[in-house]
Amino acid sequence: MAQQKNEQTHQPSLWRRYLDFPLIWKLTIALVLGIVAGLIFGPDISIIEPLGQIFINLLMMLVMPLILFTLVAGVASVSPKTIGRIGGKTLLYYMVTTAFAMVIGIGLALLISPGTGLDLPSDAEADEAEAPPLAEVLVDIVPDNIFGALAEGQVLAVMFFALVAGVALAYMQDSSDERLSSIAADIRRFVDGGVELVFIIIRGVLQYSPIGVFALIAVVVGETGTDALLPLLTLTGTVYAGIAIQILVYVGLLALFRAPVVRFFREAKEPMLTAFVTRSSGGTLPVSTQAAERLGVRRGVYSFTLPLGATVNMDGTAIYVGAATVFVANVTGTELSLTQLVTVAAVGVLASIGTAGVPGAGLIMLTMAVTAAGLPMAPVALVAGIDAILDMGRTMNNVTGDLAGTRIIAKTEPGMLVDPDNPPEGPDDPEDTAPGGGQEPQGEQAPTSASEPTVDDDVDRT
Ligand code: ASP
């Protein structure tokens, strides 16, 4: 009897087998099954929408604590000088790649000419929208109430607070006043603990992700249907071709900075797929963070570049805005002047700064670009009908761009990239002796997640 029981316990349970099955395969199977279910059941499949919404909520629930904890810990582990340098480089990199993406989107659309000859249904209607003034975007970066900013999910405002708190913590850590430095050590342990806590929760959420992926993709396919998609196939093809070119641009950039491209995509595939189905770069942050850890990028870099990228770096969205504006012009038989094209590009790049990485944000940016170019709004309603399909691709592109940028920026900063399979012990910012540099707590913080098997352990070790 006892022997029989013993044999039974050696059989891995169904749950254990589920956990041991590589995550990426679970996600791929869920994606394929979801597409099939959407095609078979059509709009009726919406009944399972809550399962997908639960997945998005689980991710969103982690975003604000993740940004707050990782950024305070990340900033406190490097000097303000290093953070300033990383910030400057990151912003420049993101602006340049987004402007480039915009050129790809407009260029491809001018070449392929989607929308020409398409009839506009007479009931097509869309509202105008204007980009918020840059001054307003800048003012909103500084929160008047940090709890309000956290509650409303304002990424840039929360980042601002976390940056300030991280710098203050670094200053306290480095203080010669023993009372201050000992309090700083306690705060630091709390913040590091917060990071690990969030990481462990992400690990759990990822085990739910196949169900979320299945439900989300099934609902999009079921609701969009082929009727809406077919007349807009050229626009869809143009946007996806632009995204493919942009991904090749990342391959080129990664190769230029001597990053192992295959390894990069091996680690990036989970956030790419998550972004594809959730259509939210903000919501994908917990998954991208894990990928950055597995790529060996230190917290001092990714805690800043990833949330910033989720809000300001939208290469896929730029391709879409460029291509869809040309589509709108074609449908209405308007020839776009160079000034209009430049206006569209400028609005697209600037609007991406103030627009959060949430589903459908690109559609709002499109209305801003169309309004700024003085084009009729009606064709935007056509695009809105298939926005979910386009949003999936552009969000995947956005997240890949954030991760590629993060990997490249880390490469350009001394000590910010470690061998992910063999992380060294030591501070985040070895070149530095300024506040926060080389203190005892940094040594504790940086390698924890990179060296100790946290999320990636149960996830997909391929
Ligand atoms: N959904 C996209 C994102 O989260 C933004 C967009 O709608 O283009 O990055």
Q: How much is the average pLDDT?
A: 84
CATH C-level label: Mainly Alpha
Which H/E pattern describes the elements?
HHHHHHHHHHHHHHHHHHHH
CATH topology: Proton glutamate symport protein
The CATH homologous superfamily corresponds to: Sodium:dicarboxylate symporter
Low-confidence segments? 430-462
Polypeptide structure, described:
With 462 residues, the protein is an all-alpha fold. The chain has a single domain (46-412), classed as Sodium:dicarboxylate symporter (Proton glutamate symport protein, Orthogonal Bundle). It has helices spanning 2-10, 14-20, 23-41, 49-76, 80-112, 134-141, 146-152, 155-173, 178-229, 233-256, 261-278, 281-294, 299-312, 315-331, 338-354, 361-372, 378-385, 387-412, 440-451, 455-458. The two termini are 39 Å apart. Aspartic acid binds at residues 279-281, 314, 317, 357-362, 391, 394-395, 398.
Protein topology:
Layout: H1 2-10, H2 14-20, H3 23-41, H4 49-76, H5 80-112, H6 134-141, H7 146-152, H8 155-173, H9 178-229, H10 233-256, H11 261-278, H12 281-294, H13 299-312, H14 315-331, H15 338-354, H16 361-372, H17 378-385, H18 387-412, H19 440-451, H20 455-458
Helix pairs in contact: 3-9, 4-8, 4-9, 4-12, 4-13, 5-10, 5-13, 5-14, 5-15, 5-18, 8-9, 10-14, 10-18, 11-12, 11-18, 12-13, 12-18, 13-18, 14-15, 14-16, 14-17, 14-18, 15-16
The structure holds aspartic acid.
Residues 279-281, 314, 317, 357-362, 391, 394-395, 398 line the site of aspartic acid.
Supply database-style keywords.
single chain; 462 residues; mainly alpha; Proton glutamate symport protein; disordered C terminus; binds aspartic acid
